[in-house]
Amino acid sequence: MIEWTDKLSTGSAKIDEQHKELFVHINNLLAALSDGRSKQQLPELITFLEDYVIRHFNEEDRFMVAVSYPEMEGHLAQHKLFLRRMNDLKQMIESDSDSDRQAKAASDLLVKWFTNHIMILDRDLGSYLKKA
Ligand SMILES: [Fe+2]
Fold first, then answer.
1. Distance 75 CA to ligand 1 centre (A)
2. What Rg, from alpha-carbon coordinates, does the chain have?
3. How much distance in Å is there from the Cα of 79 to the middle of ligand 1?
4. CB burial of residue 73 (10 Å; 0-12, 13-18, 19+)
5. For residue range 70-125, what is the model confidence (pLDDT) as tens digits?
6. Cα separation of 112 and 110, whole Å?
7. Which CATH fold topology does 6-131 show?
8. Which of 49, 93, 126, 128 is close enough to 25 for a disulfide, judged by CB 3.0 to 4.6 Å?
9. What is the pLDDT of residue 87?
């Protein structure tokens, strides 16, 4: 599970709210992966999470453009990379029915990547937005 703490605060209330909602969707997916009974919900949960991530990234992209954020290029590249890896994860979940491997792959991508991304790049963006 992924948990929002003050350490993940970006200084932008809007971004923080979206991250909190994102974590709810991530946790719903992780819960479904670790519970054999909810397998039939997986495609729906994955699609839902993917849509939310895309909307959230688009919103961050708009913030960056609005303030001509100097680190925009690198940040956008990370968002693109994430979406590719999310697609790989989706395919992995479809093709590999081993629940433990699915749960590990999902946690590695969703929990680790987001925690790391928020801690470094989103916090950097948040403090720039505050100054701008
Ligand atoms: Fe971001």
1. 6
2. 15
3. 6
4. exposed
5. 999 999 999 999 999 999 999 999 998 888 899 999 999 999 999 999 999 999 99
6. 6
7. Four Helix Bundle (Hemerythrin (Met), subunit A) (1.20.120)
8. 49
9. 96
**pLDDT of 22 over the 80 cut:** yes
How many angstroms separate the CA atoms of 41 and 46, rounded?
9
Do the Cβ atoms of 59 and 19 come closer than 8 Å? no
| 3-class DSSP assignment, residue 11 | coil
DSSP tag of 6? G
Mapped onto helix, strand or coil, the DSSP state of residue 115 is helix
Q: How far is the CA of 37 from the centre of ligand 1 (A)?
A: 33
The pTM of this model reads 0.93
The rounded Å distance from CA 125 to ligand 1 centre is 8
For residue 64, the CA-to-ligand 1 centroid distance in Å is 10
Ligand 1 mean position to 57 CA, how many Å?
A: 6
- Mean pLDDT, the chain, integer: 95
